[in-house]
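Structure first, sequence second, as always.
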């Protein structure tokens, strides 16, 4: 009896060992229709529901917005030097300006009619412009208008069934909001990067006349200029324009023109061929402690007026030197850059209420802005 029991235990041990070896090395040998659901769950990793968006993914926003972001290729004809035919000049300097110059950038389709927003510096001086869509279509583009003061331009392509990007509201942005940057960096192809809004109202960068940039840490590189900064719903918040960089690549400091500014430029260039901006004819300064003491001003925020153009819109409305503009149309004004941006957005001839601090009392004045004069060309 003991011998039978010993034999049984040895056989059971061998079979059990064989089972574990096969289950480890050749588990498919053990597959059979009757295998229980519990065994399946242990041997197979869950694959998820096909098409389900993982939590925290920006997939839908990227898909929605990317279709309306285009790549822009520009070319400039060779500019020959005036002395290019002089043999001595060619001996010392060689052939100058015999090759065409090319450029890369991005743009955003904002209308079914084919209007595209981009940066002025992307297309400035270009002789030929070609647009490449995300669906592999390509088409020549013509310039509808440019606005160097905001570094924006509007192009137009003649194509059917164009995807368009929904314009969002950049006025509702707050620091910390998540954003995506979409464009064609270095010409590698359409690329989506993510980040947050790092700051708002950036100015005094020396890039444009009207500066009110959205700052973001979403990677923006050369070639991204004119591309889209979008929210997590895929709506346009800004036009990517510039970066701060010591290497030529992204260092986490990028700047975009708010869509509110871009919309004003788009409407002006499409309807009138130019951007109409308001102007009141004053010499504004930031309210420094020195100026506050000089003019005996007690308010802490606002823009002090140190000069008023005779017979200008401000003078006719009663604004005087020493007045501090604290609000326009109930919107607080804190510095000269903000004043310039707000006034430029006013419609000429339409009266607007200005809140002015004068001798430490608030005075409401109605100012009818004029048309901002075009800058005079410098000496030739």
């Amino acid at each position: 009896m003991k011998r039978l029991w010993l034999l049984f235990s040895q056989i059971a041990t061998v079979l059990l060992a064989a089972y574990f070896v096969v289950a480890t090395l050749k588990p498919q040998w053990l597959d059979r229709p009757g295998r229980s659901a519990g065994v399946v769950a242990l041997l197979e990793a869950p694959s998820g529901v096909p098409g389900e968006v993982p939590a925290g993914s920006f997939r839908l926003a990227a898909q929605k917005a990317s279709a309306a972001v285009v790549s822009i290729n520009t070319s400039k004809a060779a500019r020959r030097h005036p002395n290019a035919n002089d043999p001595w000049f060619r001996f010392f300097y060689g052939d100058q300006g015999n090759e065409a110059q090319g450029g890369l950038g991005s743009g955003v389709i904002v209308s079914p009619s084919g209007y595209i927003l981009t940066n002025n510096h992307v297309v400035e001086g270009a002789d030929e412009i070609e647009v490449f869509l995300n669906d592999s279509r390509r088409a020549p583009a013509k310039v509808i208008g440019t606005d160097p003061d905001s570094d924006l331009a509007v192009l137009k392509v003649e194509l059917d069934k164009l995807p368009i990007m929904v314009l969002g509201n950049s006025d509702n942005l707050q620091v910390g909001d998540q954003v995506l940057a979409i464009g064609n960096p270095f010409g590698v192809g359409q690329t989506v990067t993510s980040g947050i809004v790092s700051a708002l109202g950036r100015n005094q960068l020396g890039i444009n006349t009207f500066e009110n940039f959205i700052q973001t840490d979403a990677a923006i590189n050369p070639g991204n200029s004119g591309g889209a900064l979008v929210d997590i719903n895929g709506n346009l918040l800004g036009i990517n324009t510039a970066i701060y960089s010591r290497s030529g690549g992204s260092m986490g400091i990028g700047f975009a023109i708010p869509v509110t500014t871009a919309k004003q430029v788009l409407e002006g260039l499409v309807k009138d061929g130019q951007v109409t901006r308001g102007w009141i004819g004053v010499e504004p300064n930031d309210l420094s402690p020195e100026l506050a003491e000089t003019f005996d001003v007690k308010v802490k925020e606002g823009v002090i007026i140190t000069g008023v153009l005779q017979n200008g819109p401000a003078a006719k409305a009663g604004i005087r030197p020493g007045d501090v503009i604290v609000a326009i149309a109930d919107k607080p004004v804190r510095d000269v850059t903000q004043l310039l941006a707000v006034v430029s957005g006013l419609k000429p001839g339409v009266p607007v209420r200005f809140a002015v601090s004068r001798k430490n009392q608030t005075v409401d004045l109605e100012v009818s802005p004029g048309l901002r004069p075009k800058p005079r060309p410098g000496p030739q």
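Margin note: The radius of gyration is 32 Å.
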